[in-house]
């Protein structure tokens, strides 16, 4: 059974940030202020579901415990803020989020059992799918558009590759 203690602090922080990095990648792929609200809420919903369903001494439960901890939530928000350079350069911010995700996956693959790694990586991918499906893209007041844009499909493929799925 893999626990939080099996990871270094930096590795664990990357694992904890991974769902937000995935959500951020999807949001940035086809950015729209109105859609961002629904997409951000979908990330929060996936985290809330995890805190309610993850039980026992599992890696998923350790992750859920960190999301439920208010102090960790504050530190996580700070860690996710883009630097001044990244806030001016979306490509740099995307590269950072993708790099953080790849670091998290490397740590997960190195430390977790194959079963736990597969479960966590599949859940992480589900965060991306939920984010992409949270709002219609290219619609006007709910008319027209499509559920997942081609840009979101492309970034989901990048995420899937980074996760090794």
Structure description:
- The protein starts with 8 loop residues before the first helix and ends with a helix.
- It is built from eight helices and no strands.
- It has one domain.
- It has 165 residues and is an all-alpha fold.
Question: What's the arrangement of secondary structure elements?
Answer:
Elements: H1 9-29, H2 33-53, H3 59-68, H4 70-80, H5 84-88, H6 90-111, H7 114-132, H8 150-163
Helix pairs in contact: 1-2, 1-6, 1-7, 1-8, 2-3, 2-7, 7-8
Name the features.
165 residues; mainly alpha; 8 helices; 75% helix; globular
Strand fraction band?
Answer: under 5%
Cα(first) to Cα(last) distance is 22 Å
Category by helix and strand content: mainly alpha
What's the count of strands?
A: 0
Low-confidence stretches: none
SSE series: HHHHHHHH
Radius of gyration: 16 Å
Main beta sheet strand tally, sense and closure: none
Shape: globular
Binned, the helix content reads over 70%
> Helix count, per DSSP?
8
Q: What is the averaged pLDDT score?
A: 84
The total domain count is: 1
Short précis:
This protein is 75% helix and 0% strand. It is mainly alpha-helical.
């Amino acid at each position: 059974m893999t626990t939080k203690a099996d990871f270094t602090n930096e590795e664990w922080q990357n694992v904890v940030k991974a769902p937000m990095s995935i959500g951020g990648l999807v949001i940035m792929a086809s950015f729209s202020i109105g859609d961002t609200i629904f997409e951000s809420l979908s990330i929060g919903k996936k985290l809330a579901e995890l805190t309610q369903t993850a039980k026992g001494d599992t890696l998923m439960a350790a992750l859920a415990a960190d999301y439920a901890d208010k102090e960790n939530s504050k530190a996580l928000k700070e860690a996710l803020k883009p630097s001044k350079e990244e806030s001016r350069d979306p490509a740099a911010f995307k590269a950072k989020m993708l790099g953080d995700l790849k670091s998290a996956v490397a740590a997960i693959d190195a430390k977790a059992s194959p079963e736990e790694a597969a479960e966590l990586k599949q859940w992480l991918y589900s965060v991306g799918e939920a984010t992409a499906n949270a709002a219609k893209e290219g619609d006007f007041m709910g008319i027209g558009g499509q559920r997942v844009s081609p840009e979101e499909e492309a970034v989901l493929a990048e995420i899937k590759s980074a996760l090794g799925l």
